[in-house]
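Quick check before the chapter quiz. The format below is the same one you will see on the exam, so make sure you can read both the input and the output lines.
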Amino acid sequence: MIKKIGGAILILFIILIAWHHELVYYGLVQGKGQLSVIWNARPVQSFLDDPSTPDSVRQKLLFIEEVRQFAINELNLNDTDNYTTMYDQKGKPILWVVTGCEPYAFDPKTWDFPVVGEVPYKGFFIQGMADNEMVELEKQGYDVGVRTVGGWSTLGWFTDPILSNMLGRSYGDLANLIIHELVHSTIFVKDSVDFNENLASFIGDRGTEIFLEKYYQDSHAVTYANELQDELKYVEHVLRGADKLDSLYNYFKDKDTTGIAVNKKDMIGEIIQQMDTLSLSRFTFLERLKKRNINNTYFMSFLRYRSKQVPLEALYEEDFNNNLTAFIKHLKGKYPFL
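Here is the expected output.
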């Protein structure tokens, strides 16, 4: 009897694997890539103890630890070992993220994964697999995009390392990234990527301002304030552009769609050209941006990370009197981690 039950379970397991073979294969490849990063990361202290470590690297590593301690002790983000190790990328990208979106609506392509639920992106540690995914999405009629990422959170499953390419960021941008990712390992709601990313962006911005004004008022705080001002202008412009495109798509929704592709192309072109009016103090990448093939996935990335800042700001100011620690404590209680 036991053998029969065991055999039945084995058969069901084999059927399950066969039915979800693509997901299983993807999971194995991703697991291998993630573990390779984890296993090959070295303790930050080993870099600090190494006489050959450049002073510029040493200073950034010490700075990250300051940010980490601030986030844990003063913002009440979860105390983990994240960012106490570093993985040397040797200047190369290690993770590619593919996104897809309907061409004439801001409806993202989504994937379902265990634990995190439904997400509007898919990561790959092998560039060729990312390229193949893009080709498949294009065949299905989606707008597609791919980008390399400077950091990500494993949501407490592993110790997230510093990636060496992070150290090329400005001090303010680096602090923002670290706090953003630490938020993900503290508050993460299943099937709610837009909320998770908007919240991490909001806390990352506010937390970085507080940290730099308190500890680096005479140096990095001023630079970061200018960077953030530029970013807000840029984000607002892109979100306004997304609103215009959304109106265009809704206009054509119940009409003859002949010509919508031309209208879309012209409108995106106008949005890009109007970036010259933003009076930014930096962001020299605008010229490079104009040469890219911008589509709905580009606008979706801003909606995903920045479209809910106004209600979060209102909650932060009105209910918590700009007290970020109290704000975080409330959200930790309201949204148990996964």
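If your answer matched, good. Residues 1-19 have pLDDT under 50 and may be disordered.
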